[in-house]
Every structure is written in structure tokens, then in C-alpha cells.
Fold this protein.
Amino acid sequence: MIGRECVLLLCGGDKPKQSADIERALEYLKDYKDKDRNLMKRKASISHDEAVIRRLRKDPDFAAEYLKAIEDEDEPRVLLIALRHLAQAQGIAKVAKAASIERESLYRALSLSIHGNPRLSTLVAVTKAIGLRLTVEAVQ
């Protein structure tokens, strides 16, 4: 193991049982190394987008709060990012099907490229498909 050390100390016991104890200790050490190797293979961190998507998957009530948090943003791209996160959390293909939109068209509509300028009908369909509704209210 890189940068780690595992010490297993066997004390006392019957002489006849020692070989069985050593065998068991070696198995434990092998399991420990395998677990440690698997932990090392995992990504140490995830992107902000992935963290948001995971949170949206785990907590559906967070979705409305997430969109409310961006309502004061003057940049329309922020809404596209939020809707893309919501669609990814529920599954792009599933949302596209529920919104009666081709999957590729949904990706394009929610992208930040020049083509990512969805029609209002697309936004309404997508928000409905993810279980939300676009509303308008007077600024106070």
C-alpha cells in the first residue's frame, strides 16, 4: 500500500492454532488491501454540477428551492443550467419523453451554446415534465 502501513500483531495462543490464526490474519490483510485499493480508485472529488445533480436526485423537494434561488439572476443562462441539472437528475431521456421532445433537442435547448435558446413552449414542457410549473408574479 502506498504511504500506508498495516501492522497485525498476534500474541499468545496455542501453538497448534497459530498457523490457523496466521492464515486468518493474512486473509484479513488481503481484504483490507482490496478495500483500500478500491477506495483509492474512487474519485477524490466531484464537480459542482455532479454534486447538485446528486442532491436533486436524493431530495426532490430541493428542486423548487433550487429554482427559486436563481430567480433573482439577470442572466438567462443560469435558468438553463438549473433546468439542465434538474433534467439530468431525473434522467434526460425520461424528461425528454415526458415533454414530448427528442432527447438531442432537449440537450441542445438546455445547452449554453448559441443553439441553447429554447422556446417558451420547450421551457414549459420541460418544467412540467420534471414536476414543476413556470409562473409569473409581480415584482415587489
Observations:
- The mean pLDDT is 78.
